[in-house]
Design a protein that fits this description.
- The complex is a heterodimer of chains A (287) and B (265).
- With 287 residues, chain A is an all-alpha fold.
- Helices cover 74% and strands 0% of the residues of chain A.
- Chain A has a single domain (59-286), classed as MetI-like (MetI-like fold).
- Chain A contains 13 helices and no strands.
- In chain A, helix 3 (58-89) packs antiparallel against helix 10 and helix 5 crosses helix 7 (147-175).
- The relative contact order of chain A is 0.13.
- By secondary structure, chain B is mainly α.
- Chain B contains 14 helices and no strands.
- In chain B, helix 3 (57-88) packs parallel to helix 6 and helix 8 packs antiparallel against helix 9 (168-179).
- The longest helix of chain B is centred in the N-terminal third of the chain and has 32 residues, at 57-88.
- The radius of gyration of chain B is 23 Å and the shape is globular.
- Classes of the chains: A mainly alpha (287), B mainly alpha (265).
């Protein structure tokens, strides 16, 4: 009787998960091996043709490369800034609460709002960045319209939004560090600098791992500001995987190819989560 | 030593000013007209009036509030039952099913956007607020968090209540739910901010102003093609983040704690 209850309790959630997670994953995988049904042609089995096309699709290669560049540009920078913020805020400082709040606030804003806010900095004629450059006597840059500055512009607003979020994990970790180690180091006359590298930094390693994986996952799911700021342009310079999936599915209406792209994204996310679970397992074993 | 302290305080403040600047600048722009930065130009609500007259922001806001409310209510209901089963009932296939549930932590509904849109249109729920919320209602994250919380509750409490004649539902209501309040609060805050901010899925699903949440409304309003004045965009942006920002400022500590708590999965 009690066992039956188990299934009854899980069933509503399980049905919804089946409809919007399990079934779509399997259906997407199957779709990626077929062509789209059109009025002229029925759906036909293609085998790996879509995947073959993928490897020869310059836009896909560009988006994948952009995603890696984006991860490379945002992940280490946000983590280093987050650590600096946490270290600064955990020291004696006037108005500490206000400072912490300032660092954290961007985290809760919608990405769309963040994109709008940063639009004011990047717009060619009126943007603040170009005004500053103008004051220095140089001509401004079209930040979002130039292939070499468009992706970095998106990276900057991402770092601004994420660093404060990662900071709170470092803050929590810093509070749990054993005080005795620092007292011992103090007696031995170790400098703050070597205290940080010999004690704080190694002890923060699990937190750093955790944040890194989370930041990587976010980097591959990044999409919202593209809609407001660049639409993937100029010349695909800011086209990232999820945006390309959206365009392929809803603008180009190429469903089987969108399915193939989705399979790639799902695989990347699965690999990242396996690493994450692996690292967490290890942490439990060591404690 | 003294010098190092001053250096550190200066760095802290410089970074804080840098971090506060974009948002403060948006606030400033929202309350002033014209595209030129003039510190002494007078305050005005003109931009807000213009924004409200050009797009139904109040309606978008109501849509978002409805979306966030029904999604959270359904999540709390579904996740409580599922979490209890995973935590305390030894049913057939429990571990495999739980592992499958965890898949959704990583592969959220918007990743499978094309297929989920097809499914939603097959069941006729596109362009409805319910349709925007539905794929998120069985939240793996909620199930996971509540299961962890339920597992820490001593089994003796449940046994004692059962001896007194409580049913399983009664036990959930009188023992498990009250003792897991902090988890419920943490999850609720994370869910509210997630769905208030969510964009891609609502963008695809909604096509009319009676359904569109605020993020989608704002993105449409602010897209460069519409040529809307810059200060008016600021006003619209401030308008759309104000409620969430106000709640955040009121419950700062709880917010930070719930993000922390839910981040350490």
């Amino acid at each position: 009787m009690k066992r039956l209850y188990g299934w009854i309790f899980v069933l509503p959630a399980f049905i919804l998960l089946s409809v919007f997670t399990f079934y779509p994953i399997i259906a997407t995988l199957i779709d990626s091996f077929y062509s789209d049904k059109t009025i002229f042609r029925p759906r036909v089995f293609l085998g790996f043709e879509n995947y073959h096309h993928l490897l020869h699709d310059p836009v896909f290669i560009t988006t994948l490369l952009n995603n890696f560049l984006f991860a490379l540009g945002t992940v280490p920078a946000s983590i280093i800034l987050a650590l600096i913020m946490a270290l600064l805020v955990s020291q004696r400082t006037p108005a500490k609460g206000l400072i912490r709040l300032t660092y954290f606030t961007p985290t809760i804003l919608p990405m769309i709002a963040v994109a709008n806010i940063w639009l004011f900095f990047y717009t060619p004629q009126i943007g603040l960045f170009n005004k500053i450059i103008g004051l220095l006597g140089y001509t401004g840059i079209n930040w979002l319209g130039n292939p070499s500055t468009a992706l970095p512009s998106l990276m900057i607003l991402t770092i601004w939004k994420e660093a404060g979020f990662f900071m709170i994990f470092y803050l929590a970790a810093l509070q749990s560090l054993p005080k005795e180690l620092y007292e011992a180091a103090g007696i031995e006359g170790t400098s703050n600098w070597s205290c940080f590298w010999k004690i704080t930094f190694p002890l923060l390693m699990p937190t750093t791992f955790f944040i890194t994986i989370n930041a990587l996952i976010e980097a591959f799911r990044f999409v919202d500001p593209i809609f407001v700021l660049t639409k993937g342009g100029p010349d695909n310079a800011t086209n990232l995987l999820l945006y390309y999936i959206y365009e392929t599915a809803f603008s180009f209406l190429n469903h089987s190819y969108a399915a193939t792209l989705t399979v790639v994204l799902v695989l990347i996310l699965v690999v990242l989560s396996i690493i994450q679970f692996g690292v967490i397992e290890k942490r439990i074993h060591y404690q | 030593m003294k010098f190092m302290h001053y250096l550190q305080v200066t760095a802290t403040w410089l970074l804080a000013i840098l971090w506060a600047f974009p948002l403060l600048y948006a606030f400033w722009a929202a309350f002033h007209t014209g595209n030129h930065f003039d510190l002494f130009s007078s305050l005005t609500l003109e931009n807000f009036r213009t924004a409200m007259s050009q797009a139904p922001f109040l309606r978008y806001m109501i849509n978002t509030v409805i979306l966030v409310t029904i999604t959270l209510a359904a999540q709390l209901f579904l996740c409580t039952f599922a979490a209890y089963a995973f935590a305390r009932i030894n049913f057939f296939g429990r571990n495999i099913v739980f592992f499958l549930v965890l898949l959704q932590l990583m592969i959220t509904p918007e990743i499978l956007i094309m297929k989920n849109y097809q499914i939603l249109s097959n069941i006729g729920l596109t362009n409805t607020i319910l349709g925007i919320g539905l794929p998120y209602m069985a939240s793996a994250f909620g199930i996971f968090l509540l299961r962890q919380a339920f597992k820490t509750i001593p089994k003796e409490l449940e046994d004692a209540a059962r001896i007194e004649g409580s049913s399983t539902l009664g036990i959930l209501w009188k023992v498990y739910i009250p003792l897991s309040k902090p988890t419920y609060l943490a999850y609720a805050l994370v869910s509210i901010s997630y769905h208030w901010n969510n964009f891609l899925w609502p963008l695809v699903v909604s096509s009319s102003k009676t359904v569109r949440p605020i993020t989608v409304g704002l993105a449409i309003f602010a897209s460069p093609e519409t040529g809307v004045n810059w200060s008016v965009i600021s006003a619209a942006t401030i308008l759309s983040i104000a409620p969430l920002l106000a709640v955040f400022l009121l419950f700062q500590k709880q917010f930070v704690n719930s993000f922390l708590y839910t981040g350490i999965k």
